[in-house]
Amino acid sequence: MDDFDSILEHGIKFGRGGSKSAPDGGKVNTKAKKKGYVTGAHGSGSARQKAKYRTQRANRHKS
Fold it and tell me: Whole-angstrom Cα distance, residue 51 to residue 37?
């Protein structure tokens, strides 16, 4: 019953405890800007379509 009373008074704490910092130092990892994803090389039809539009737009401004 002592554990139950402690939970009622203080609640249950989930997640990381202690003074550990984030394992990657707080960096955000994203694949969105990697070349393979931007060019659609990873197989996504949506990314391939976007890459096609990007090249068309880039070629429009070339002299």
Answer: 9
